[in-house]
Amino acid sequence: MTRLGDLERAVMDVLWDSVPATSGGVTVREVADALAGRELAYTTVMTVLDRLAGKGMVQREREGRAWRYRAAASREAHIAQLMLDALDLGGSRDAALVRFARSVTGTEAEVLRAALSAEAGLTDTATPPERSGAGTLVDRVDPPAADRAARAHRADEAADR
Hints:
Elements: H1 6-18, H2 28-34, H3 42-54, E1 58-63, E2 66-71, H4 75-87, H5 93-103, H6 106-120, H7 129-132, H8 145-160
Antiparallel strand pairs: 1-2
């Protein structure tokens, strides 16, 4: 997954903050209006949304002569994918995960424990949203099958070392 530039991130923030997943999305004009403090040209916002669509970050649907845009995935799913991509940068995934686990707060560690337990089927419920601040554990990021196979192969190679 490609990291977002500053303007791309600002546009995605508008989509994540103002467009429910069930809505029909927003127009370029609505995004430009939401970013009014940045004094961007309409065509600049249109180009950014077009590029985000090309990257698979947004979905668009034709409405008359205009397009309506919405985020292809939630903010949480995007962040989770960035974290997975960071683990793929090289070195030991195990060491990076241990380092990460040691750097989180007690509350964050509880959220991780609950998520891992729920994923393993050890509990029936996820951490309540009021404790985690991030909602339920419904936004899973599943890499494509080819990615899973490649990751499994790299894990096997690391285990052989």
